[in-house]
């Protein structure tokens, strides 16, 4: 199992950053323009059971990526200081052997610490992971840097 983590501090309340992630156009906003990705559908918002479907292009080959939200800790389910804490999506079909992505939101001195934590396995086992983990993590680093910059810009300039 491989791990990737990207975290940044956003000068906005947790509720604002969470609400940004609930926008109907969030996938269009957070998908880097250089990525060969088509958004097929998004259903259910951030709640458990929500579905996101993409088509990735690996060269000329289309690959379906279907993710389902398996965890959501938000205002409707919790009260007090930990409202809008996290949501998790898991790949049900796609290019990875496994993929679990936790989106974490925490208050930090009036700001929001946004953390994306991913545990994944590549098809091909240990050999593929030893050969390709550095490349996958560098692509994830580029993508999440972009996503966090967009989130920061949108949430801080309200």
TrEMBL record:
Residues 10-144 form the Coenzyme Q-binding protein COQ10 START domain. InterPro entries: COQ10_START, START-like_dom_sf. CDD domains: SRPBCC_3. Pfam families: Polyketide_cyc. It comes from the Bacteria. SUPFAM superfamilies: Bet v1-like. Gene3D superfamilies: 3.30.530.20. This is Polyketide cyclase / dehydrase and lipid transport family protein. It comes from Lyngbya aestuarii BL J.
């Amino acid at each position: 199992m491989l791990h990737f983590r990207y975290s940044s501090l956003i000068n906005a309340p947790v509720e604002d950053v969470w609400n940004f992630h609930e926008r109907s156009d969030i996938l269009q906003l957070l998908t880097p323009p250089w990525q060969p990705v088509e958004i097929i559908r998004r259903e259910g918002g951030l709640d458990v059971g929500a579905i996101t479907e993409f088509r990735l292009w690996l060269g000329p080959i289309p690959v379906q990526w279907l993710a389902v939200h398996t965890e959501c800790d938000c205002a409707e389910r919790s009260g007090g200081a930990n409202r809008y804490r996290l949501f998790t999506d898991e790949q049900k079909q796609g290019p990875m052997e496994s993929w679990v992505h936790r989106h974490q939101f925490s208050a930090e001195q009036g700001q929001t610490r946004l953390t994306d934590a991913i545990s994944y396995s590549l098809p091909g086992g240990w050999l593929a992971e030893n050969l390709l983990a550095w490349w996958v993590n560098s692509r994830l680093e580029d993508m999440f840097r972009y996503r966090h910059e967009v989130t920061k810009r949108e949430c801080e300039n309200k």
